[in-house]
Amino acid sequence: GSALQRLAVGAATDVLTVNGAATAPEWSTAASGGATLTRTSVTTSTEQSSTSASFVDITSITQTLQAGTGCAICWYQTSTEFASATYFRWDFATDGAQSELLCNSPSLSQFGIHGVTSTLSGQVVKCQFKVYTGGLVSYVQRDSYNGMMNILEIS
Q1: What pTM value is reported for the model?
Q2: Which residues lie closer than 8 Å to 89 by C-beta, 6 or more apart?
């Protein structure tokens, strides 16, 4: 009828759906085939410096993604110190180099950059940095602060 009715509690694995006639809620078995999440974390305490005005790979901040379809969310965080502004970017082997991000705080500071791949496809992802003015020095993983990369693969 049209009177309010109490819906009994479903099973722990049930999901709430609408019945086939679209007239009332009901509990149903969840559909299979949802996304698979894979998390990878890499930490390094190796201090690295560069005077290059061209991008260089950050040591140990490289990961090969699984083969197949999907995407990955990538995050890198470090301490940085420099005499010149420093640019960071993600370089994805299949998707190409991503937009540069400027870190312009010359004292020792925390810095993070994220990127999202268009595909997994077994591609290598790596974080890179360069000095704004060549010849001046920039540091990452400075003063024993760890650099950390986290990747969440969604397939």
Answers
A1: 0.75
A2: 55, 97, 98, 99, 100, 101, 113, 115, 127, 128, 129
Kindly state the tokens that stand for 1.
């009828």
Mean pLDDT over 80-109 rounds to 85
Question: What is the reported pLDDT for 138?
Answer: 87
How many CB atoms are located within 10 Å of the residue 131 CB? 22
Q: Kindly tell me if the per-residue pLDDT of 33 is higher than 90.
A: no
- C-alpha distances (whole Å) from 125 to each of 5, 31, 79, 116, 140 are 54, 32, 20, 10, 18
> Residue 58: CB partners within 8 Å, gap ≥ 6?
48, 76, 78, 126, 127, 128, 129, 140, 147
In one-letter notation, the amino acid at residue 68 is G
The neighbour count for residue 144, using CB atoms within 10 Å, is 8
Distance in angstroms (rounded) separating the CA atoms of residues 35 and 18: 23
Tell me the residue ranges of DSSP E strands in 24-121.
25-29, 37-44, 48-50, 56-64, 71-82, 86-92, 96-97, 101-103, 109-116
The encoded tokens of residue 98 equal 């991503």
Is residue 92 over pLDDT 90? yes
